[in-house]
Design brief:
Length: 239
């Protein structure tokens, strides 16, 4: 086993039009990869301003699953000892929303260093949209209204990430344009409802409950954008 194989990140492209059973199947997969049979799961909804709606949605799903859910807020009273709190988790979930604002808040609280320590200690990092792109060197973000732009992120994983690849009409052409202009580095595109699972810093597995959904390694060859589909495992989410 490689020394860093216990370092796990699961990046999900987005919720898209997933049904409740499909959502539960994806979440069960994430929990099944954690280091505990009944993992402690901390939800961080900073990207949407700690909205009550996202908290209700999180607890509605995760109280149905074999785990111990909790949450961490930054727009209300925040625990004094963030490090101890997060290092006692098994899974850290990051909600979607405004990635740029989320990263700015995290920097103020010195959270990136704690998240890296958590990841390196074997705590899984996961989630969709903002919670997918934030782990890469760069991401394609809609944090600025009516624009899709490159954003420098945490850099735990090399390259870039574009979520919602089949769920939002402008995602694919915008990612291609950014790649061709050199504004963003080669990386990974993830359709809605698709989980791209990294062990260490390399892709390990792609799973999805959706037919014809995929994840791709996207790069430029001789001035042309090339999408290399990654093998998808659908059967792991059935049954």
């Amino acid at each position: 086993m490689l020394q860093n194989e216990r370092h796990q990140i699961i990046a999900i492209g987005g919720s898209g039009s997933l049904t409740e059973p499909q959502t539960l199947a994806l979440e069960r997969y994430v929990l099944s990869q954690a280091r505990s049979l009944e993992p402690a799961v901390c939800f961080i909804p900073t990207a949407n301003g700690d909205s009550d709606t996202s908290l209700v949605r999180f607890y509605t799903v995760f109280t149905q699953l074999p785990c111990r859910p909790s949450h961490l807020l930054f727009f209300r009273r925040t625990p004094a000892d963030l490090r101890s709190y997060l290092l006692n988790q098994d899974v850290i979930y990051v909600g979607g929303g405004n990635t740029r604002s989320m990263l700015a808040v995290w920097k103020e609280w010195r959270l990136p260093d704690i998240l890296r320590e958590a990841w390196e200690s074997g705590i899984m990092l996961a989630r969709r949209s903002a919670g997918a792109i934030c782990w890469f060197e760069q991401g394609v973000t809609d944090s600025v209204a009516d624009q899709l732009l490159p954003l420098d992120c945490l850099g735990f994983l090399s390259g870039s990430c574009c979520p919602h690849y089949d769920g939002e009409a402008e995602r694919r052409p915008s990612y291609h344009r950014l790649l061709l202009s050199g504004s963003i580095s080669p990386g990974f595109a993830i359709d809605d409802g698709v989980a791209l699972h990294f062990r260490g810093t390399d892709p390990y597995r792609v799973v999805t409950p959706r037919e014809n959904a995929a994840a791709y390694h996207v790069h430029v060859v001789d001035g042309v954008v090339q999408e290399d589909p990654l093998p998808v495992e659908i059967d792991r989410l059935r049954g």
